[in-house]
Amino acid sequence: MLFRPTSPAPTAQASLRGHTLDVLGLGVRYGAFTALDDVDLSVRAGEVLALLGPSGCGKTTLLRTVAGFVRQNAGRVLIDGTAIDDLPPNRRRVGIVFQNYALFPHMSVAENVAYGLKARGEAKPRIAARVAELLEMVQLGPMRDRRPAQLSGGQQQRVALARALAIEPSILLLDEPFAALDRSLRLDMQIEIKRLQRQLGLTAILVTHDQDEAMSVADRIAVMRRGRIEQLGTPVELYDRPRTLFVAGFIGTTNRLPCLMEGAAEGMAAIRLPDGTALRVPAEAPPPPGPALLTVRPEQLVLRDEGAPGAFPVELGLALPLGGQVIREARLPDGTTLRLTEPRLGPIRDLGARAFCALAPGARPALFPNPLSEED
Amino acid sequence: MGVAIAAAPAPSLGLSAPRSPWALAAPLGLAYAAFFVAPLLMLIAVSFYADERMTRFGLEQWQRFLFDAFHWKVIADTLLLGLKAVAATVVLGFPLALVYRAASPAWQRVLLFIVVMPLLTSVVVRTFAWIVILGREGVVNQLVLGLGLAAEPLRLLQTELGLVISLTQIEMPLLLLPLLSVMSRIDPNLMDASASLGASPWRTLFRVILPLAAPGLAAGCLLVFASATTAFISQSVIGGGRLVYLPAMIWQQAMVAAHWPFAATIAIALLLSVSAVLAVIAHAGRVAGGRVHG
Q1: What ipTM was predicted for this assembly?
Q2: Which of A273, B49, B238, B291 would be B54's cystine partner, CB 3.0–4.6 Å?
Q3: Does pTM surpass 0.90?
């Protein structure tokens, strides 16, 4: 702070760029309950990483540990390679947007945004300039003297965002920030946050239980379950190549077909459906022979009128025509219900009609050991 | 529901559609008018009798009260006693309220029970308990002498210090009940938000917790002040005859001297002086908390 460059002061963009976060072997226990179990995670500079999972999976605990509100039992948290474990929350420079925004109700919008700058002991003129700049950025300039209670949900969230960005945080943590917004506003705010994050080059962690939110906002997603990271990857990777049955079920819509694994060779697995249909599907890590589950996305299935090798008979159920696409239910002879999408090219097949269902050419369904004995 | 009971006679109490909410408040309103407002007006009237046999009106009692420096000292002592009790309960009670805010719901119930428990015991019993504790042979003196902190037993009974100590314990629930209620409604995320923005715990205390707790704190202070300044039993039993406060003067004039006009004058002086301080406390609470709730 002693040295001030004579050239124009560095913009907010420059000072925020390029912070990394590393979590190494993090463990948190609450009594007998293990909230985080040996979690490793690296967040790259300038990316948005979503922690996605059902409630109780440890995603919020991970966020609160990074912020310093929860002290871990094991492991380390590093920002730009430096351990921050021994720093109290107020010395970490980690910005948070809370689910309920947690705006100070007794302060105006401008005072809320100025709070962190005052706590840092910035000079008054600088605070005023920065507050004006931030309120401009989130388009709340005219609201500066309102109290939080006089603002709409979306406006409150923008104040919370401006307040968190005011301290030029190295990492921005977003704790279910869209959960309290109604659906139409949610998309607007997702785009807004994504835009600001890109513009400022922020590294951000988004905690959510909403897969659509994670898919639309995040560069990479860590799917969490029972205190562990089940799979980490881009939205496309998670959708196309789920590594576990849980991920396959949590991301997107999935059909589960019980089948029998018969053997595997050269990256292809030979399986048999209960009705006797034999299928060959690509499998990078095929499960051992025995009962298995084939998970198939709705768009990976096609309907045919005549039987063919690899096609199995189905009885057609309800059809939901969504413009160019039809969502269709179909029932296997053993009662398993499938959901599939097909382009609406010809007339829509009748309810109750018989047809044959097959894997679309080039489809890569996933194959897992049947977990009936271990599934919760 | 209307169909099923259509045949039943219409409710005769008139509760189905009260014409105005005032009707529901009427019983209590009448009781207040009869047993509070009317006696208060009578009290004011009595204070304007010139002589103790109440034969003619005049300003003699008010002149006697206002032109005697001793009476002003008693007013000051009484108000000061109240302020000391408020200060002591706040200094000891506010940290407890902070503990309460941070505690788990199970511990909050335990703390609340401990706070409320003294209210289940009569003030008389609690006051006499303090005699046992503060006396020459009491627990405090045994401890002080045992630890060698003093050569002689401390004189606590019949001193203002002893009185403030016991009033602090006796009035503590009155401070804590409104304070805890407000404290537990403060969103814990606000403390986390404050810390994440770089504020030290002290800054969070003074800039976030205290302003948000102000309405509860002010309400608690009001109750403690009003109760401590008028705590006739504790003032007489712990304070003894050497410490004179307005309630004891009223009792002495009304019951011993049988001088009702002068007793009424002192009673109104007590009412006015206490109300003046209460107004100041309430105003301070509104200024601090009004920005939140207004």
Answers
A1: 0.81
A2: B49
A3: no
